[in-house]
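Thought: the user wants the 3D structure for the chain below. I'll pass the sequence to the structure tool as-is, report back what it returns, then summarize two notable features.
Action: structure_tool
Action Input:
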Amino acid sequence: MTSDEIRERYLRFFEERGHRRIASASLVPSAHDPSALLTVAGMHPLKPYFLGEEAPPERRLTSCQKVFRTVDIDNVGNTARHLTFFEMLGNFSFGDYFKREAIEYAWELSREVFGFEQNDIWVTVFAGDEALRLGPDEEAIAIWQAMGVERERIVECPRSENFWQAGPTGPCGPSSELYIDRGLEYGSPEDLPGGDNERFLEYWNLVFMEFDQVRREDDSGTKLEPLPAKNIDTGLGLNRLAAILQDKPSVFETDQFSPLIELGEELSGRRYGEDFATDRALRILADHARAMNFLLADGVVPSNEDRGYVLRRVMRRAIQQGRALDLEPGFLVRYGERVRAVMGAAYPELNEHSEGIGMWLSAEEEGFGRTLAQGLGNLRLHIDQARSSGRSSVPAAEVFRLHDTYGFPYEMTSELLAEEGLVIEGDFDELMEEQRARGRAGALAGAGPLATADAREARDAASSFAGESGVATRFTGYETEEQQTTVGALQSITANGSDGDRAAAGPRYLVKLNESPFYAGGGGQVSDSGTIECEHGDCRARVEDVLRLGEDQALVVALEQGSLSAGEPVLARVDHLARHATECNHTATHLLQAALRERVGSHVRQAGSYVGPDKLRFDFSHSQALSAEELRDVGDRVNAWIARDDPVRPITTTLAEAKRLGAMALFGEKYGDVVRMVEIGHGDYSRELCGGTHVRSTAVIGAFHILSETSSSANVRRIEAVTGPAAVELLRERARLLDEVAAELRTSFQNAPDAVRALAQERKRLEKALKEGGAAGSGTAAPDLEALAGRAEKVAGARVLAATVDVPDAKALLSVLDRLKGRLAEAAILLGTAADGRVHLVASVAPELVQRGVRAGEVVKAAAEVVGGGGGGRDTMAQAGGREPQKLGAAIDAGRAAIESALAA
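Observation:
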């Protein structure tokens, strides 16, 4: 039975028994679920249903969910069954059936569909736990016995084995697991399910979800509370079941993995089964190739934070294993093609995003590949030093330097050291936190803790207030900016800060309106502002914030006049100017994404945004800075669409239909079966799932102007822009400045560029004369700056120059550096010279590259260590020296590697 057949038979079995089949959710959880970076279980996307926060589309559901877990990553390749990415089949009941039906379904499917012999099936049940104040699951034992399972094949296991929970808090409950007895040839008569053996292979977990684990009010731990209804959550690992049904010794010989193993054999010339090291490398490559392709397809990009770091760790672990097998560069793309060939039919997103996936695979392999060999050599040096000195460890500081300079994930270094019988000595996490603290210091300098505390307090209060009020607000802001309505409920809130602050702001309240025209911030768009006025004009409140509470909302208002009370008729009025400016910016953001995908590539996906009345900010996945030509083309394309006066239409449709039409979805957003899709033009260039407010036609935007394009984080770029009156005012200011420049140059504004170019040429002539005069006085030929600048290379979208220069001393080296900076914009420059038995090193890093992680002090430090010296300085400028001039070339190479590693991170 193939994996595709297993998936289909399982889903069809439950469909025939009243379950609704639902598609797999993304590996990226909803933005409203901060409990995990990635989807870790089949039930993970369904948590709001289990918690009673949302109503499920049906009381019975079944799915095949994409799942990613890092908990077993170190075991991948070492065992026959551990994986990071896998498919989890599941059937779910929300307040419908419970233990008896779940067990009956599992027994029937195992026996009649998958054909397992009755005596080969063993089960485990919860043995009880004193800390949870729960006894053994006697009910499950009795049901299994009624199915025909002998009592001796029902094994009671502790909480660690048979009590399931998604995390430290959340839905949970006792479970019962089904195992296949593979026979004595895989173990001994003493083996039991739940133990550490190969004889019994678990394939299905039935969770009887009846509790919610919550934190105690005094923070002393957790406690169990009953869920609103008893639920069923089951998980059957498709890949593990395939190994059983296909009679394979491990998942890596099944039909989903064997094509990937065969590719590794083809590329390496090795054979699976020839030795453990080869088997382990081929297994890691097969598993990690699947994982990285599915993560990339769901919008994750490599970075040094959060889920991007998880992806980068998987990719770099695979790259290291590929190099161990001597695979030729470009092997990650080959694996990506094979993953699509095997899995693309079941998961069309792999084919839909193939261009972007291939780009990220190539970029990461190329970027990490440049520093991998040098980093491994450095690690080997530390291993040899530890061995020669009789130590069993490598200092955490050296492991941190490998991470910081060569991009080695801590876990990979730890794994490589473990293979040599060594451990890490010291606190790596402390070193990482010190670095993060340095990075945060500047960003936090201007933060406003009062506003942050107030917002947090208001949201906490609003959650309980909305539930207690019993008032559900109907949003009318798509149709109108003014709404006659009634105050459904209100509650006083106290702001942090001094009494004077609070008095100035006026009394503040949480307010629930029966109908509200105010947009609650979401999807990057800020909340509306405005006013609430009593019908007779005797009270007035300013709307400070609109809090989104699922499909509901609550207002934070400051009372400016009179008093408010529940049941009072009021006029709710949105600030029209702010709303209109925000709408212009929001529609322009959609146009911007469409233009970027058209000009830069279909791999561009939104990675965050801000849409307010003042400007728009759009973060998108891309590995390098846009060229001036690309940026100009993008701006021109947006303005061309604005000039066409294309209609902007919000359309309510099904999620399936929106996907069929190619609508873009927001990264990390959760969507129901019915969605709101915003279509611009005739759908030929922009369709996005969006709940925000928009203008009615593109011409309303007026004008669009890009302010800046910078790095937001690793592999994420940021564009800031303005529209409408703000764009017009900016253009007016630029025209005024151009007129001033023209006046200074005593020419017209049309001729100002030519006049500036003439001045620049004159400056070059004078610099050349100065250079020739200096060389004549010093007796040393001055370096050819034009030739030197021409040696700069493009690395990850940045200009990098690392070179030796023949000058007499450090002062002359600094002079060369200063003049080069004028020729190389947004560059990282490292120069070195040897004079009088000493090495002199200088580095300069443009502020834009400092934001990307390149720091001059770290660059010269990496170079100086090679020549037996040291030094330092600022992030943008640093100097160093050394005592071994014969190693100057190697020092320059080490500095270049540090720059390239930082740019690749």
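Final Answer: Structure generated. Confidence is low (pLDDT under 50) at residues 439-453, 497-503. The first helix runs from residue 3 to 15.
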